[in-house]
Amino acid sequence: MQLPTILTLGLAALLSSTEVLATHQIRFTNKCQRTITPKWKGNGETKPQAGPALKTGGKYTATVAEKWVAGRAWGADGSCSANDGAKCTLFECTFSNVGFNQCNISRVSGYNVPMAFAWVGEPAGCQGGKRCMSSSCPNTVAWLPPDSCNGCLSQCNKAGVDMYVTFCPN
């Protein structure tokens, strides 16, 4: 057997046994009548990442890992913590296994803006998104303090799925 053939077969074997790591996009849209800066963190990160300050109608797309555990995103507007989203309305999501994802809106640490999320393209195997329009939205659409959720989770059994997160949805 020739050396190039052996190398080609070896490379093919290596590639077939290597896990392909996909990513997820979080597509932020600001429909608030004030500037909002999208921030997010997950996988035990202590400092959040941030997109640009979005004026009304502004959009920004963030990319997170396929395995993004205990992820959270929020719209910073100066009324809540810049580092962890405390006192903010939170979008929480775990992409822990390829093809099993679950997300929710949380008011556990506070509320600062109305928020909605949805799976991009509403793929088969994905439940509908959620929308929390006020600081009194029910536990069917948002996780409430101290620990109350009655159908507030949305699951999606598809790998590499992307998310829409909208601040002040219509």
Automatic annotation (TrEMBL):
Gene3D superfamilies registered for this protein in UniProt: Thaumatin (2.60.110.10)
Highest taxon listed in the record's lineage: Eukaryota
SUPFAM superfamilies in alphabetical order: Osmotin, thaumatin-like protein
UniProt cross-references to InterPro entries, sorted A to Z: Osmotin/thaumatin-like_sf (IPR037176), Thaumatin (IPR001938)
Cleaved signal peptide residues: 1-22
Pfam families listed in its UniProt record: Thaumatin (PF00314)
Keywords from the named record: Signal
PANTHER family hit by this protein: THAUMATIN FAMILY PROTEIN-RELATED, THAUMATIN-LIKE PROTEIN
Protein name: Thaumatin
